[in-house]
Amino acid sequence: MAAQTGNRRLPRRSLDETRSLMLEAATKLVCAGTSDTSEEAVSAALAHIRVKRVTEEATRIMRERLGDDTAPAITTGSIYQIWPAQADFQAELLFHLTGRQAELVPDLPESIRRFRKAIETGTPWQEALNDVLTDNHENHREDPIYRVLLGFYASAANPRVRDALGHYGQSFTKVACEAYQALLDAYGLRMRAPYQVEHLATAIAALLDGFHMRWIAGHPNLEDPQGEDGWSLATRTAVMVFDQFTEVDSESRPG
Fold it and tell me: Which segments of the chain does DSSP mark as H helices, in order?
């Protein structure tokens, strides 16, 4: 009886059934990848970046800067003296990319200059904040490195990827806190208890990340509900968050 059961013909699957099985299996494999802690997770995040291609591009850049097409090429051998394995190179590249991305936050001196100028011209803090956040929003949604970083989150189970993303978050938050504190000081505002400026920076960053992704994906309803030039739903919402986290500092005066 067991032999007969093992040899019986199974019902023929339809194309729709096969399609459903394939999609189910692929979905499980994709989801399994998000818990991968191996070194392959780092490679997967930057699978298209191979050392050989990097040396070729580095050689092209070097020769262009020197104005000499005959300058000795950068070899893979010299690269492996720096990074013994490709995974080591890719891990450092992750940190380089996340550090580069944090530079999109306006620097402190520039923020102070813009906020003081806004006060001199009678510009409300809401307009001043919108001005800075609009620049941030436009830079992030157009910047190719930011789009690459979004893909790293799928491999965040790997400690190296997670550390790199944490480095990015900390660097970004540090500069953002300085910028927001400059705005608070310039307009005589303070954080509303129990919030700290770090909470404000984290909340607005998370908010803007969501808006950046929705803009990249082409989602609708992102324009300013009030129809004002220079504003968007993203900056309107960020200004509302800023307003809820802060209050007038009765012991301080603007300027």
Answer: 2-7, 15-33, 39-45, 51-66, 76-80, 86-102, 108-120, 125-142, 144-152, 159-187, 197-216, 233-245
Residue 82 lies in a domain: no
The predicted-structure confidence for 28-49, as pLDDT tens digits, reads as follows 766 665 566 666 666 666 766 7
Q: Which residues contact 185 (CB under 8 A, 6 or more apart)?
A: 252
Q: Kind and range of the H or E element at 247? A: strand 246-248
3 state DSSP class of 191? strand
Q: How many domains does the chain have?
A: 1
Which residue in the block uniquely carries the two structure tokens 């990015």? 168
- Model-level pTM? 0.76
| Tokens encoding 48 | 């298209």
Specify if 10 maps to a domain: no
Q: Which residues are bridge partners to 232 per DSSP?
A: 223
Cα 213 from Cα 54, distance rounded (Å) = 28
- Domain extent, residue 93, equals 87-248
DSSP-assigned beta bridge partners for residue 248: 189
Residue 15 lies in a domain: no
On whether residue 45 sits in a domain, the answer given is: no
Length of the chain: 255
CATH no. for residue 124? Answer: 1.10.357.10
Tens of pLDDT along 173-229? 888 898 899 899 989 999 999 999 999 999 999 999 999 999 999 999 999 999 999
Pair of tokens at residue 22: 């394939």
Cα of 8 vs its chain's centroid, Å: 55
Taking the C-alpha atoms of residue 204 and residue 210, their distance in angstroms, rounded to an integer, is 10
